[in-house]
Amino acid sequence: MAETxxxxxxxxxxxxxxxxxxxxxxxxxxxxxxVIVGSSGCGKSTLLRCINALEEIQGGEIRLRGELIRHDGKxxxxxxxxxxxxxxxxxxxxxxxxxxxxxxxxxxxxKRSRNEVREEALALLERVGLKExxxxxxxxxxxxxxxxxxxxxxxxxxxxxxxxxxxxxALDPEMVREVLDVIVSLAxxxxxxxxxxxxxxxxxxxxxxxxxxxxxxxxxxxxPDQFFTAPKTEQARKFLQTFEFIRKKKEEA
Amino acid sequence: MPDLGLEVLWKGxxxxxxxxxxxxxxxxxxxxAGISVLxxxxxxxxxxxxxxxxxxxxxxxxxxxxxxxxxxLLFLMYFGTTRAFGWNLSGEAAAVIVFxxxxxxxxxxxxxxxxxxxxxxxxxxxxxLGLKPGQIYRWIILxxxxxxxxxxxxxxxxxxxxxxxxxxxxxxxxxxxxxxxxIEANRKASPNAAFxxxxxxxxxxxxxxxxxxxxxxxxxxxxx
Lengths: 253, 224
Hints:
With 253 residues, chain A is α/β, with parallel strands linked by helices. Chain A is built from 9 helices and 10 strands. Chain B is elongated, with a radius of gyration of 22 Å.
């Protein structure tokens, strides 16, 4: 049995008295890819934001390799360095080149040598097909390229776990593929990942475990094959139906 | 060609005197600008926190400065304080105080605007990378804020330079006062001097302010 990397127990999150997540527990073990699906506003993104303490939590606890993650914790910056997060809107730093975007945190926060990180940054950029963009500015990149840079920016910190928050939701359809391919290759390398997405065929391909979040809690937890072919709950079946289109053609009617 | 009265400029040291007057105007505005930029940055950063005491102070301060004509503030500071508090401020000192009060408030508002205009999620994405609050300011928030700030603050400084023409009313011998003196002194010999001298003053203001506006435009374009 692989070691547990992330452990969430009895998490409760409220916004102005309204409960968004209630008594939610979830463990992610090393090398596991967990995909979270659910309708909009079900709290998927909030869950990811709680994990690296961008949100204060009202109950329960979150541990990374046994270490408690607290919104007001003294060691929060160090813990966050071990949690890679990729946002829907990329959030590259517009005043820095691609390479400087990648170097900032390893050099300033982790105090690693600039030269060593530079080498690694260029190697990683090459892996995602963007080596020639190292000296470009973020505004010169397409959405898909920006998102690949953002993934590299998370990877270069050598995180214990990667969080992906609907990373293709803001992309044009033709750019979704290039980003998802990168994530699939990360899964092949055995990275531990927690992914929120609306791309169902990607979810099925990349996940070791699928979680359906609905009504503030985990409603169903299954292997991808089971989830997509024989969902256990009625809600899961309904949720999957929203992605299907059936049109009665005239001759059948 | 009508007589523009330009010949007055070459009489005696008139041209040098005008330049001296310009220097007085620039000195007042540049000292005030220096104070305003420094104080404004500190106050602006403090006021960028919502519901802070500094943000309330800045709001009240701004509301006063915005509705008060600068000339009234100048008179209040120069003539008003002499009798009421027994302060014997020179006209130049009074001008620097008023301009700094005005500039600090506006500068702080610009800084506050620039800092808060950086999206929360930009800050969150650096936090997520594990940088400490000081590092986040130093490497992400301030560099982006400064880029938004520089064109606006240069605009403020040119407005300050222009507004120094008011301090002639406090008896400060700056460029406009010198111009009046030259015109008065040559009333008989060159009755048309008013045009030539004021035209020169106009060109001098233009040459002093224009490079700043150009620099602001250039920076703005470069950082878009």
